[in-house]
């Protein structure tokens, strides 16, 4: 996708230097700042502190983090230790665990001398596959958008939640990939962007849409139901952090409320995610662990002060008891379709197995 008209990815790998550069997403939308990640500790911090966020990008960053960790010690002990640390950073996004398991499966049979180069090659393969898969999601989603257009020149009004654009992946995005595909194909499209409290990832969505020239309007989370009720939304599309085998979807908290409002108003609710987000070992959404984040994310509001410097404003006392779940689960019956790199399918076990028959039990 584009920043100031320049094609850009969220992650730059430098295998010859054994490090990566990432966009510090905690600085957006106020400043575009690249951070160098050269140690295992820095990679784990980038994931845990949400300098990188979005399930696919978390997975790719973890893969590179493992490659970085093996630079000076590729022993079995180091491989196991590094993978365990990276796994501990975020519990809900299954892409993280998928990427690390894939890396371990490739690296464990190899000699220690061969592991470092192989780790960088496999991490690069994971990143490149993410780009290709997300581009395919865009094309499959575009076909669904075209079915919603009933008149030439009609503006397609899409609502999303959190950030599932290219900032949440290596490139293209998941939920926003069909939006970009439509915009680039000349389809008039407008996006309603929910702020997504308390981390305000919707501000990242608005930033990247503006960079790519896609018309959009930022709204408070609680305005979503009204817009749906007023018929101002043609479809809602979100990403996912984990999709259970039965089609239940874990995504940023607040997603479930949008799905309910869609059901009440006859608006299709779509979920877009690559294969790495599907967890066929998880039978249903009730089995998905929900991350509880630090309450200070809720107690403070972050922005710029009157000198245009980053600042935090306390909105609650330090001893105020708060709950800060990062995700919720939307049951499969509220989902119109799941869009993957292989196409769109019903949100059900049979639907997912129709796209991925190799995952069927023997």
Secondary-structure blueprint:
Layout lengths: L1 E2 L2 E2 L3 E4 L4 E5 L10 E4 L2 H9 L6 H15 L6 H12 L6 H14 L4 H37 L7 E5 L16 H8 L4 E6 L7 H11 L3 E4 L4 H6 L5 E4 L3 E3 L4 E4 L2 H11 L3 E4 L5 E2 L16 H4 E5 L5 E5 L12 E4 L6 E4 L2 E3 L3 H7 L7
GO molecular function: S-methyl-5-thioribose-1-phosphate isomerase activity
Keywords: Amino-acid biosynthesis, Isomerase, Methionine biosynthesis
InterPro entries: IF-2B-related, IF-M1Pi, IF_2B-like_C, Initiation_fac_2B_a/b/d, M1Pi_N, NagB/RpiA_transferase-like
Structure description:
The chain is an alpha/beta fold. The chain folds into 2 domains: 128 residues, Four Helix Bundle (Hemerythrin (Met), subunit A), CATH 1.20.120; 220 residues, Rossmann fold (3-Layer(aba) Sandwich), CATH 3.40.50.10470. The chain has a 7-stranded mixed beta sheet with strand order 8-7-6-9-12-17-18, with helices on both faces. A hairpin with a 5-residue loop joins strand 14 and strand 15. Helix 2 packs antiparallel against helix 5 and helix 3 packs antiparallel against helix 4. The mean pLDDT is 94.
